Amino acid sequence: MPGSSANLGPAFDAVGLALDLRDELAVRLLAPGAGVRVEVTGQGAGRVAAGEGHLVVRALRTALERVGAPQPDLALVCRNGVPFGRGAGSSAAAVVAGVVLARALLEEPGLLDDETALDVAAGMEGHPDNAAASLLGGVTIGWVDDGVSRAVRAEPSADLVAVLAVPSAELLTARARAMLPAVVPHGDAVFNAGRAALLVEALTRRPELLLPATADRLHQDCRAPAAPATAALVGALRAQGLAAAVSGAGPSVLVLAGVGAAGAPALAERVTAVAGPGWDVRTPAVDRGGARWSPVTSPPATS
């Protein structure tokens, strides 16, 4: 399951971009009465809930309940590569993984088509941006219609590259969301509506527009006190003409450019020079395939 970056500046809770930071999972059915066994390595190991409380298991149960399927006992192995608590879509990747694994266990996988899978995942996440990107890959635009989460996928420009600057500190999404005002000025709403529309054009066809397209007036400044180093880095990068934005709720910083894969190392060097020590600068590819699963004869057993 790919990670993701949401908001991308102005498109709050709406636009997501899938990134090739992946969680790999395997599930195996156990005999009735065996319970649930979970093994986690990589990001979040030793910290996330085990057994029925694990987010992937909860999502799998929710998806099976949605389609009226029986709830099996199972063994789950998670090898997590999405940074945990850094605004890179780790919770959405886990939820989408659970839903996709539920699909794999069904005798009729079509019961959990992408529309249903997205609605289940977004219902657990609270909004469709990261979940849509992790499920569908590429650029996604999500919305909620009469309580049902929906999304469309758009193909990213072939030249679009992403650089992710990841700090050592974490930031809980709930804390960042609690800092948002209940009411915003009309002028700021108009500004963001225009920039969010421009963002889709920049991501898919004209990446030279990414700097103005990633400008925001709705949420990033409100959250700056929770992650001042993040806000400072976004400002410093944008001052140098780089399309930087807070990745999701933060505290990671996403930089986008239309330089092609060959230009990614040089872009990462520029970001590293501005960021200085304390930031892990990565160049994940833009993931275009989304969630993928395949049957295996003997997934690794839990200990």
Average pLDDT value?
A: 94
The major pleated sheet works out as:
4 strands, antiparallel
Task: State the shape.
Answer: globular
pLDDT under 50 segments (min length 5)? Answer: none
- The portion of residues assigned to helices is 25-40%
What value does the Rg take, in angstroms?
Answer: 19 Å
Q: Give the structural class.
A: alpha+beta
Helices and strands, in N-to-C order? EEEEHEHHHEEEHHHHHEEHE
**For the largest beta sheet, what order do the strands appear in spatially?**
1-2-6-7
Q: What is the CA-CA span between the terminal residues?
A: 23 Å
Number of strands: 11
Question: What is the count of helical runs?
Answer: 10
Residue share in β-strands: 15-25%
Oligomer: single chain
Describe the protein's topology.
Blueprint: E1 2-7, E2 11-22, E3 24-29, E4 36-42, H1 55-66, E5 74-80, H2 90-105, H3 114-125, H4 129-136, E6 139-145, E7 148-154, E8 161-167, H5 173-178, H6 186-204, H7 210-213, H8 220-223, H9 228-239, E9 243-246, E10 253-257, H10 260-275, E11 279-282
Parallel strand pairs: 4-5
Antiparallel strand pairs: 1-2, 2-6, 3-5, 6-7, 8-10, 8-11, 9-10
